[in-house]
Amino acid sequence: MKYFKKILKNNYIKIFIAEILLLVFSTIVLSYNLKARQKSSSVMQKNIALVKKDNENEQEEDEQEENEEKEEINQKEEPKENEEKLKNSKGDLKIISSYISRMTSDREKEKNRVYNIKKAAEYVNNIELKPGEEFSFYEAVWAKNKNKAYKNADTITQNGMDKGLGGGICQVASTLFVAALKANLKITQRSNHSRIVSYIPLGLDASYSTGVKDLKFKNTLKNKIKIKATYTDKFVKITILGTPTKEEEKVKTIIYPAKTTKETSKIIETDVLVEREVGDKVINSIHFKSSYLK
After folding, report:
1. Which pLDDT value is given to residue 191?
2. What is the pTM of this model?
3. Cα separation, 4 vs 119, whole angstroms
4. pLDDT at 15
5. What is the distance, to the nearest Å, from the Cα of residue 79 to the centroid of all Cα atoms in its chain?
6. pLDDT value at 63 more than 90
7. CA angle 25-26-28, nearest 5°?
8. Could you report the per-residue pLDDT of 227-269, keeping only the tens digit for each?
9. Where are the domains of the chain?
10. How far, in Å, are 22, 23, 41, 262 from residue 31 at the CA level?
């Protein structure tokens, strides 16, 4: 014991012991810090994985939402009808395309407007177009009836809403315009309204004004087509029938939602892209630009 006390009195021994204790303490601290860092790194990696997963989920949701938005125009909900085929006197015709537009609740109360829409749909119904033949909305729904078939109803003007003969028939023109696009027909004339309408997606309206605006399209398919129009107080539906070739059946039409290209305090300019695809290859693309007053 005396020998041990004597050793402890030696300054060199004291320094040596102190260094050992310091080394042990440093080792303990270093080990603790290493474990803390490993734990922190593990937590960070988990957080990164969670953030990455959230981003992937968010990206998938965005892509799904975008795809659903793209398909909204192409797969708009229709009334439950059994119409696999519609027959005419010469045999069966396949449904090439169809589109439906619905009347808003306030316009359902506008009897004259509903009357005009039904009357225009009657004139469009059963029209046939041979290959290369062109359809004119003016010729189909206006010229032949000499303005006697329609009543005064709300119509869009540069100044807003006003009463006019045939108010509402543009809804038939707009519905027909989209159906023609989906049938891969060639649009030769189309104008948008001066203001945004509520019954059709933005940029897909077709306005009619006698002597000023018309809707025209040409049957560019190999065979004859037939237009069928159905209507109630709540909707207008246009169906285009025909006998498409195998090559024509392979063509898929995608109508992309309108993109705003310019917006000021007075106007909104939009652009709708329509693509025709065969497989993964785009064979044709068309832009329909519109400008609306606010």
Report:
1. 96
2. 0.72
3. 119
4. 63
5. 20
6. no
7. 65
8. 999 998 889 999 999 999 999 999 999 999 999 999 999 999 9
9. 2-71, 77-249
10. 14, 12, 15, 62
Residue among 148, 135, 224 nearest 176 (CA): 135
> Whole-angstrom Cα distance, residue 67 to residue 138?
36
Amino acid at residue number 112: N
Residue-wise DSSP of the chain: -HHHHHHHT-HHHHHHHHHHHHHHHHHHHHHHHHHHHHHHHHHHHHHHHHHHHHHHHHHHHHHHHHHHHHHHHHT--------SEEEETTEEEEEEEEEEEE--HHHHT-HHHHHHHHHHHHHHTT-EE-TT-EEEHHHHHTGGGTT-S--EEEEEETTEEEEEETTTTHHHHHHHHHHHHHTTPEEEE----SB--SSS-TT-----BTTTB--EEE--SSS-EEEEEEE-SSEEEEEEEE---HHHHT-EEEEPPPEEEEE-SSEEEEEEEEEEEETTEEEEEEEEEEEEE-
